[in-house]
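Render Pseudouridine synthase in 3D.
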Amino acid sequence: MAEGVRLQKLLSQAGIASRRAAEKMITDGRVEVDGQLVKELGTRVDPDASVVRVDGARVIVDESLVYLALNKPRGMHSTMSDDRGRPCIGDLIAHRVRGKKNLFHVGRLDADSEGLILLTNDGELAHRLMHPSYAVPKTYLATVAGTVPRALGKKLRAGVELDDGSVAVDDFAVVDAVPGKTLVRVSLHEGRKRIVRRLLAAAGFPVQALVRTDIGPVSLGNQRPGSIRALGRNEVGKLYKAVGL
C-alpha cells in the first residue's frame, strides 16, 4: 500500500524492537501481516486495520487499549461496583488507575478467594477469554483439609459430577502437605461459579484457602494482594494467540 506506516517503524513504535532489530525480524521471516509472511523492508501497513504478528504473537498497536493484572485480595468482591457498599475491585481501580474507564474484568473470584483477575477495555479479547468455547485454562493453589491420596488426581481428571453437570480438571498436583491439610495445584478451563471449591468439596476435600495464580499465559508471580500491574506486550500477544485473535 502506498499509504500507511512502514512495517519496521510500526514494530519499533509498538516497543517490539529497535528499528534496526525490527528490520532483521522482517528479513528473517518472523513477521506476518494479515496472515501473510512479509520479508520486504519497504512494506507499509495500516496500523488501524492490519493484523501484525511476530513469531505468531499479535502486536498491539492501539495505544488506547489497556491490559492490567490485579491480585484481588481476600474479602473483596469481583465486581466493578456494589449496590450494598461492599468492597469491590472497582474501588481499587478508581483509586489506582487514573483515566482508565470502561474496563472489563476477566474472570470472577468469590469474596473468600484471592488471586489473578485481568482488566481490559479490549472487549473482544475479554469476551473470548471468558467464553468456554476457547477453553483458556486457569490455575489455582488450594489449601484443602486432610491428606490427599494419590488416586485423587486420576479421579479429578476423569470428572466429578456436580449438581450443574460434570467437571474435570486439566491438571492436578500435590504441592505440599502438613498434618491436617494439603496444598494442591488445580488447572481447569471451567468458569462456573465457585467451581474449584465445589469440585474439591465433592471429592471429599473442602477448600480452606484458594488463590488463582494463572489465566492462560499470564501468571500472578510475586504480585502482592491489592496490587495492579500493566501486562507486558509479550503477555498480551500470548493472550491474543490463546483465543485465536
